[in-house]
Amino acid sequence: MTLGNHTYRRDGIGSYLASSERVIRPANQGALTPGRGLTSFEARNGVAVAVLSLLGSIELDTPVSPWEIVDGLVDEARALAPVVIVDFHAEATSEKVALSRWLDGRVTAVIGTHTHVQTNDARIQPGGTAAITDAGMTGPHDSVIGVEAELAIRRMRTRQPVRFQPAEGDVRLEGVVIDCSDDGRAHGIELVRVPA
Questions:
Q1: CB 109 within 8 A of CB 127
Q2: Which residue of 14, 28, 43, 49 pairs with 34 in a disulfide if CB–CB is 3.0 to 4.6 A?
Q3: Cβ distance 34 to 15 under 8 Å?
Q4: Distance, CA of 39 to CA of 27 (rounded, Å)
Q5: Can you tell me whether residue 193 is helix, strand or coil?
Q6: pLDDT tens-digit series, residues 80-107
Q7: pLDDT tens digit string along 24-35?
Q8: pTM of the entire structure?
Q9: Which residues pair with 33 in a beta bridge?
Q10: Pairing relation of β-strands 48-55 and 38-42?
Q11: If we measure between CA atoms, which residue out of 36, 18, 111, 102 comes closest to residue 68?
Q12: Catalytic-role residue among 6, 114, 116, 141
């Protein structure tokens, strides 16, 4: 499980992340934050899979530019596993596309997250890397990106602080399924949207 820009918004998660091997925070969150930005595990067929998480730098308060550390992280991930998945938690589609192009042929997939809206640009790039600008949201779709619409609209209209509450109803699970060979080359990417 990968996290994003809200990882440390509430107290108490630091000690959990310090010991977790399966839940990772963005690797460029800063060296002093608890947790890890890269993990690996064995798939059902015995192939090693590495997952790394990065936070985009456009319109987000990012301590370290993803561009400064991405190459070293990818090298580290490739030393652990032939299948490498990158979660790029970023605001700007241009930055997500640029990173997926930069990593084409070096990782299995670059999956964009953060904007809560599943995009229709899933593709296999020339070098064999699957990419999508945003995998979508798991949560209530009768909302403003998961928040009760009335509350989000009130904050936008009045510019006053409003305590957000999660919306309810029309819950969906969104994401992608990537088909790849054991050497990490992607052959297919399929959008997933499952109503609850």
A1: no
A2: 14
A3: yes
A4: 10
A5: strand
A6: 999 999 999 999 999 999 999 999 999 9
A7: 889 998 888 888
A8: 0.90
A9: none
A10: antiparallel
A11: 102
A12: 6
